[in-house]
Amino acid sequence: MRGYNAAILAAGLGVGIFGGMFGLGGGIIMVPLLLYLFKKDIHTATATSLAVIGPLAVSGTVGNILSGKIIWTAFFAMSAGSVIGAYAGAGLSKKVPKAALRKALGYAVMLTAVSMVIFPAKAVDEKLVLVDTGLISLLLMFLSGLAVGVFAGMLGLGGGIILNPIMLFGFGFTAQQTVATSLAIIAPTSLSGSIKQYRSGHIDLKLFLLLAGGACAGSFAGAKIKDHINNEDLKILLGVVVFLIALFIILKKSGKE
């Protein structure tokens, strides 16, 4: 049992390092680990992953609040939609057949992998810009958040893979504003979806605590590591690995399917 718990902690640590290095919640790594290494069913894996992402997002957001990079009007508009969407998505997940949910997860992970390879890393010294927060923009942000919330609630992912391109290319955020605001939105999104998943009995609390402990420690380490490596080359290499993981998820049934 001690070895099993240590393995979970180590997995959480690895997920945290991954998230800290690449600004992702880590669900694209966490869910496959829970499915195939720890033999959890797809509903438990996605629900527990969603719960773990919450404290990671909160931890990262604290520093971003102090740096002033969060666009608060966008945060409130998108969060209002994502909180509703995540609760609904978490409820829908238990109604989706396990095989269909697994394949949807695989395609979402594949999308993440492709984006990691195609989109170059953004410069960290860019100047912040003003973002349009007119009524129409706020409405579009709310609807975007709603869609992201459903995605996150169903698949146990933070939703950053959808939020980031929407903010960058749809609303004209800089990369710094995108990462900071996206991470802040993930926190209430995760909480909303996790409440629904907990009520449905899908979250493994012991697993959550061990993963969250390792992941929070790993996220700090990952943030430090990225300052000392060629992030672009590593991102492309990891994108290829994640793509292969996605293929594996799509093609291979989990043990409890």
Oligomer state of the chains in this structure: single chain
Helix content: over 70%
The share of residues in extended strands comes to under 5%
Could you give the count of β-strands?
A: 0
End-to-end Cα distance: 25 Å
Describe this structure in words.
The chain is mainly alpha-helical and 257 residues long. The protein is built from 10 helices and no strands. The protein has helices spanning 2-22, 27-37, 42-67, 72-93, 98-118, 135-155, 160-170, 175-199, 205-225, 231-251. The model has no long low-confidence stretch (mean pLDDT 82).
Summarize this entry quickly.
By secondary structure, the protein is an all-alpha fold. The protein has helices at 2-22, 27-37, 42-67, 72-93, 98-118, 135-155, 160-170, 175-199, 205-225, 231-251.
Comma- or semicolon-separated keywords:
257 residues, mainly alpha, 78% helix
Which helices and strands, and how do they pair?
Layout (H helix, E strand, L loop, with lengths): L1 H21 L4 H11 L4 H26 L4 H22 L4 H21 L16 H21 L4 H11 L4 H25 L5 H21 L5 H21 L6
